[in-house]
């Protein structure tokens, strides 16, 4: 991990329960009840832990089990606000809750760019590293400056870099390299499919049967794997696969 990068994996013990307060969610198959932004979840305990963590899925809160802040929660709590929290200091509620969604998106983007910099061919490394360093610098902003960051603009700036790295990496790999970017593959039967080096950016793979599929080197940026069956699938070298995507799918992992 580059020295200027904040941690990109969550440490809930160092966070002030921000995902359970700052973010809204609507009653659905993923959440058992609705909650507006800025209101603590009914299951948030006094120590900022989830009171039903061990039974989230059977209780109807599967959306919580796949959420990943990519380290934004503890970074905001410990770095941006110096270890202070909204419960001990109610005046911090508004600035913390404004900044958290922004930092959440920046950390996700930084995670993509960090992987891209690690895998970019030499001719693309300088531009990729510059994009990574730019986003890393944004994550160090103070609360007011952080809340004012235009996340959409930063994504638009970084996306061409990520796309170029993806194309360059996949071009060196064997396989059919099918282009299924943004494809609606909901419930599709793709068992044992050859999807090596495929472009699956933003693909809808909810409930898709991918058992035994060969996904080596595929780009799965933003692909929706909720309920997808990945048992036996080969995901070695997959580009931009986030932990939450795997947790949303059915896999061989216990």
Structure description:
Helices cover about 35% and strands about 0% of the residues. By secondary structure, the protein is mainly alpha-helical. The model has no long low-confidence stretch (mean pLDDT about 95).
What's the story with the biggest beta sheet?
none
Specify Rg, calculated over alpha carbons: 19 Å
Shape: globular
Q: Tell me, rounded to a whole number, the average pLDDT.
A: 97
Treating each run of at least 4 consecutive H or I residues as one helix, how many helices?
Answer: 7
The residue ranges in which pLDDT falls below 50 over 5 or more consecutive positions are: none
The total count of strands amounts to: 0
Structural class: mainly alpha
Q: Bin the strand percentage.
A: under 5%
Alpha-carbon distance between the two ends: 28 Å
Sequence of secondary-structure elements: HHHHHHH
Give the fraction of residues assigned to helices: 25-40%
Can you describe this structure in just a few lines?
Helix content is 35%, strand content 0%. It is an all-alpha fold. The model has no long low-confidence stretch (mean pLDDT 97).
